[in-house]
Amino acid sequence: MSGSPTSQVVLVELVHVHSQGSAADVMDAFHVDMQQLLANPELAMETISNRAEQCLVDKSVTRLTYLDDEGDWCTLHKDTVHDAVQFAIALQPEAVGVEIRKLQLRVVTSDKKSEATSTEQIQELNKLSEGTDARRLIPKLAAGCLRIVEESQQPALFVLIDLLLSLREGDLKAESVPSAIPQFVAAFAELSEDSVSSILARVREEAQKAVEELRQEQASEAQGQEAKEVEVHPHVICDGCEVSPLIGARWKSLTQNDFDLCEACFGEEERDPAAWARVKSQVRGSVVSSFYGPPEASLQAGGCNTVAVHGPALAAFEASEQKSSTTTTTTTHSKSEDQAEAAPESSQQEEKPAFKEELEATVAKEALRSLLSHPDDAVRAAAALALRSAQQGCDVQMTEEEQPGESDEDLDSEWAMADAKSLVSSEPDEAAAVSPLLNKPSAAVVSGAPLVLGVEAEDGGAQGDVTAEFGAVLAGAGAKQAFRLGRVALPTSDDPTKAVPICAKLVVVNDGAVAWPETTSVALVSGDAFGFPQMQLGALSPGEAAELIMDLSLPARPQPGAARSSWAILDASGTPLGPILLLEVFWTAQ
Ligand SMILES: [Zn+2]
């Protein structure tokens, strides 16, 4: 047999396929060296395309196809040149030593006019979709195009269905659209000129629809985002431009009473940063604060029912508290307002110690209560254990059956001892508790507005910093400031539904060197919550301030009496950041 032929030649025959594949005629035929063709398929593609283009007048080549061994017309590109040659038909050699194969290529063309139209179309689409997210626009466009394919029932477009489905479902990302364009062009090339223009018109419609839809989606998302992010200060009026509620940053004067500015008004002139506090509001468009209604059930402080020891402990608390409340009534009733506000070293020596002692016991109990409702199981257990051992030591039986009436003077002092023990056992870092270290989150109340009271209530005017009265006890409990929200007098009433609303507003500042944790909250530590068990304050940077608005509801009482509640600013571990807020309520017979 003979060896390999000396020369291998490919006869390339270009056949023009008109739209719809109706008629076909040979445009051109030429010989190329097979080895050269296979050695540089890129150059071969260019050569063949150029020859095809030269034969066309007002059309351009969109694709070249070859027939494979299964009878399918496949697209010729540099990677399929080898295949195409393989499947080319071997011709009878004209001379010995020459191998010739005929490669028939179909030239698929498009009108230059419609090509220009589609370029315009793309530019138009680009302009239309400006400012929208292409990754989200593409699936919508694909859905629109699928509708067009379905409506038009043009078989030439059916090849696009898989591609469009992938785009609509997001399996094929917007980034891969450029690589899919040849498929669209090829499909359109199969259409008649009339079909192309009517389908392009439909594409324009669908594109407009998709862009409009996406614009609306993006706009409403932006609005939702804004509503969530905007800080709202309900019931606060900017004293510069009188906008209310104040929205965004709020600057509160520390030198003028009840003077707030919005960010714009604050920025209008140079101001002394020391005289202003940036007040943060927890109120965001969708955030429910105590201001807009009753606190959510999940906000109920402490999780009392989850602490086994808490039931009896609470009963004992209430017992001792009732007692101490009564004491408060008698002592404070015998004093004038000035005396109550006087410093400990004032002349009221004979009354002060008893009052102070009683308050000290209360504060210690408050600390114990916060330990007993501590979120950490270990801390709660330690507090409970200390409480039990203290109780056993004092031979006091703590049972569910115990009645508040059974408590007496001795029990009260024993309680003070139990409080002290539990505090020591669960607070090993006593030094840190006594003087908060610089790297610990710290808070202080810088100012308070007068209480806003329902008509029946009377403000005793005792609002302000009362740290001096509590000093040592506060330090023992890890707190460093006592701030009295007020002392409110209410008439007794037989109507149990007659609650009196009051509102306490105060400014709390981060006076430490580190930001508060996000979990920072103000929570009830003793007494009646008066409808305000807990509220999250959130993270505050050093030097930043937050306005705390406490909407309280004071219940009616038929008998004269007194009650004191206290709240503390705590982190998630129940460690006080500084202030303890006190509210004293008196019910007096008319
Ligand atoms: Zn303003």
Automatic annotation (TrEMBL):
UniProt domain ZZ-type: residue ranges: 233-284
Keyword Metal-binding carried by entry: yes
Keywords, sorted A to Z: Coiled coil, Metal-binding, Zinc, Zinc-finger
InterPro entries: Ig-like_fold, Nbr1_FW, Znf_ZZ, Znf_ZZ_sf
Secretion signal span: none
Membrane-spanning segments: none
Coiled-coil boundaries: 197-224
Keyword Metal-binding recorded: yes
Protein name: ZZ-type domain-containing protein
Species, as recorded: Polarella glacialis
Lineage of producing organism: Eukaryota, Sar, Alveolata, Dinophyceae, Suessiales
